[in-house]
């Protein structure tokens, strides 16, 4: 867990605080019987700052990149056809049933 992850958590906390501040602001408007026209500017600034931190963390903290080359040792071949045009690798799609009878109802 590095600096990028901590910045992402901080961004999420800022977003939660902005949501809480908006709820408080709406409650205050109900008490004073004023109409809600939008959040205050400090909440909008918090939203933009939290969005920036979360986006930066999402781009700075990627997962481990895996090889997509068919001759890589990380890939385990399930079946190798004779013409090598279509190679099938292990993937998450094998958890779905093979024959799915999807029919459109008219």
Short description:
By secondary structure, the chain is mainly alpha-helical.
Could you outline the blueprint of secondary structure elements for this entry?
Layout: H1 3-32, H2 41-60, E1 77-79, E2 88-89
Antiparallel strand pairs: 1-2
Subunit structure: Component of the ER membrane protein complex (EMC).
Transmembrane segments: 45-66
GO cellular component, one term: early endosome
Q: Key terms for this structure?
A:
106 residues; mainly alpha; two-stranded antiparallel ribbon; 2 strands; 5% strand; elongated; transmembrane; Membrane magnesium transporter; membrane; transmembrane helix
Estimated structural class: mainly alpha
Please work out how many helical segments DSSP would assign. 2
Question: What is the strand tally?
Answer: 2
Strand residue percentage: under 5%
The stretches of 5 or more residues where confidence is low (pLDDT under 50) are none
Determine the N-to-C terminus distance.
52 Å
* Mean model confidence by pLDDT: 78
Q: What string gives the helices and strands in order?
A: HHEE
Helix content: 40-55%
> How does the overall form come out from the CA principal axes?
elongated
Using only C-alpha atoms, the radius of gyration works out to: 25 Å
Largest sheet: 2 strands, antiparallel
Strand arrangement, major sheet: 1-2
């Amino acid at each position: 867990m590095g600096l990028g992850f901590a910045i992402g958590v901080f961004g999420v906390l800022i977003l939660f605080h902005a949501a809480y501040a908006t709820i408080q602001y709406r409650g205050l408007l109900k008490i004073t019987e004023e109409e809600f026209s939008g959040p205050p500017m400090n909440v909008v600034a918090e939203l933009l700052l939290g969005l920036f931190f979360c986006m930066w963390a999402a781009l700075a903290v990627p997962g481990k990149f895996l090889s997509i080359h068919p001759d890589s040792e990380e890939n385990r071949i399930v079946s190798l056809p004779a013409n090598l045009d279509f190679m099938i690798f292990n993937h998450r799609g094998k958890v779905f049933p093979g024959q799915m009878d999807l029919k459109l109802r008219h």
